[in-house]
Amino acid sequence: xxxxxxxxxxxxxxxxxxxxxxxxxxxxxLGDAGDRDVLVxxxxxxxxxxxDAVKGSNVLIGAQNMHFENEGAFTGEVSADMxxxxxxxxxxxxxxxxxxxxxxxxPTINKKILFALKKNLKPILCVGELLEEREAGSTETxxxxxxxxxxxxxxxxxxxxxxxxxxxxxxxxxxKTATPEDADGVHSFIRSIIxxxxxxxxxxxxxxxxGGSVKPGNVDELMAKxxxxxxxxxxxxxEADSFLRVIKFES
Length: 251
What we know:
11 helices; alpha/beta; eight-stranded parallel barrel
């Protein structure tokens, strides 16, 4: 049985004061719930403060990106050691905005995945198709390319630290959501890819999150599906009551 995993991606929102307030509200509202993993991923500037705000709670801390080098003259970048120093245990890599706004390619994302694992950070590998790719019937081709490229040279022993997030690009921040059946179908396909690469046992243990306008009104139906193990939540993670309702889904 895979433990449900709900992750909040705060993107480039919130200030120090509002981020601390939100983090404290989430930690307080979550209480002692231990039957699911809960992660918040603030902007880099807020990581230390948010980590302090949730200290002693069940809320985990993650980053939204990182560089694949240990250190160096990379202005504006953040290293794995920097993330570890502010209590990060997870890092989101290959998010659609990194792919399509900042033009990150699969080889770069793969370098980040490998370096995160080397540093004992748990990567969340994001994959998903554009609207035109979906309409062209290319969803499986695109997703398979992104999964296999992202996991290139990742060994079996490391897969327990890897989470996959399926985020159809056309459903991010648009209010549109893949039907639970469509989402579950792609999740099942991703699980079959992992099975091909690593075997059935590992594929059955790998958590696959759905990320595409997840909110209180649709989370229960999504989480009722057998291959959807959690959610990567954007806008709905920026308000405590909304995010707590997603965390406390009923399926």
